[in-house]
C-alpha cells in the first residue's frame, strides 16, 4: 500500500518510512508522483494545519496522505511562537536569530516552561482521517547549549536530563520528543485502522 507524505524533507520521509515499513506501507513524497502543491498553513492549531496539508495532497494524488505540523509553545508568551514557530520574528530570520529573539522576549520572565507539540494527520480518499498528537515538556534555557538538532533545539531544556535537545543524540531525542511521541501514537492508530478496514486496497 502506498502513502504520500506531504513534505519535501528527506529526514521526515526516512523517519516515517522506518515507522510504517512494519505495516507493509511504502511512503513516497509528492515530487515522486509529479505533484507540486503549495499549501498555505492558515490553521490556528497544529492539527488544523496538518489536516490542510494532508487533504490537499490526498486530493492531488488520490492516495492516503500524511502531514505533520510542529512547533514550540512558551507559556510566558501565551503559547507563542506556536503555529508560527518557523516564521517567528518574520521571514528574514534564520534559526539562530529566531531563538535569540525568543531569549530576548523572555528577559525578566518568571516562568520559562515550554513544550513542543506535533500533530500528524492522515487523510484517506474515502474521507476518513486519523490524527495523532505528541508533546515534549521542558523549559527555555538562559543561553543556547549544544550544536545538534535544528530550530529551537539549543534553547530547549529537558529538565529530567539537564540537557537541551541540541545536546542529545538523535536516538535520545527521538525517544522523548514531541515528534517521536506523535509518530509512535500514529503508527499504533494506523495499525488499528488498517486491521479494521481490511477491504482497503493493498
Ligand atoms: P515543522 O512543522 O516540523 O516544519 O516545524 C515548524 C517549526 O517548529 C520548525 O521550523 C522549528 O522552528 C520548530 N520545531 C519543530 N520541531 C522542532 C524540534 O524538534 N526542534 C526544534 N525546533 C522545532
User: Strand pairing plus helix content: what structural class?
Assistant: alpha/beta
User: In this structure, how is the largest beta sheet organized?
Assistant: 7 strands, mixed
Specify the number of helices.
5
As a whole number of angstroms, the C-alpha radius of gyration is 18 Å
Give the fraction of residues assigned to helices: 25-40%
% residues in beta strands: 15-25%
Mean pLDDT: 96
Strand segment tally: 7
Major sheet: order of its strands? 2-1-3-4-5-6-7
Which of globular, elongated, flat, extended, rod-shaped describes the shape? globular
Bound molecules: inosinic acid
Kindly, what is the distance between the CA atoms of the first and last residues, rounded to a whole number of angstroms? 5 Å
List the secondary-structure elements in sequence, H or E: EHEHEHEEEEHH
Low-confidence stretches: none
Amino acid at each position: 500500500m502506498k502513502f504520500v507524505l506531504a513534505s519535501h524533507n528527506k529526514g521526515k520521509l526516512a523517519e516515517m518510512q522506518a515507522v510504517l515499513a512494519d505495516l507493509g506501507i511504502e511512503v513516497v513524497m509528492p515530487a515522486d508522483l509529479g505533484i507540486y502543491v503549495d499549501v498555505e498553513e492558515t490553521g490556528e492549531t497544529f492539527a488544523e494545519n496538518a489536516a490542510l496539508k494532508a487533504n490537499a495532497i490526498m486530493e492531488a494524488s488520490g492516495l492516503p496522505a500524511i502531514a505533520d505540523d510542529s512547533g514550540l509553545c512558551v507559556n510566558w508568551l501565551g503559547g507563542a511562537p506556536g503555529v508560527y514557530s518557523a516564521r517567528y520574528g518574520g521571514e528574514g530570520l534564520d534559526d539562530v536569530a529566531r531563538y535569540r529573539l525568543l531569549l530576548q522576549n523572555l528577559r525578566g520572565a518568571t516562568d520559562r516552561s515550554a513544550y513542543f507539540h506535533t500533530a500528524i494527520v492522515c487523510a484517506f480518499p474515502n474521507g476518513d482521517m486519523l490524527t495523532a498528537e505528541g508533546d515534549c515538556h521542558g523549559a527555555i534555557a538562559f543561553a543556547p547549549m549544544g550544536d545538534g538538532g535544528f530550530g529551537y533545539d539549543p534553547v530547549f531544556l529537558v529538565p529530567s536530563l539537564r540537557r537541551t535537545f541540541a545536546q542529545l543524540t538523535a536516538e535520545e531525542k527521538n525517544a522523548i520528543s514531541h515528534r517521536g511521541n506523535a509518530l509512535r501514537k500514529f503508527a499504533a492508530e494506523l495499525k488499528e485502522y488498517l486491521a479494521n478496514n481490511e477491504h482497503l486496497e493493498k
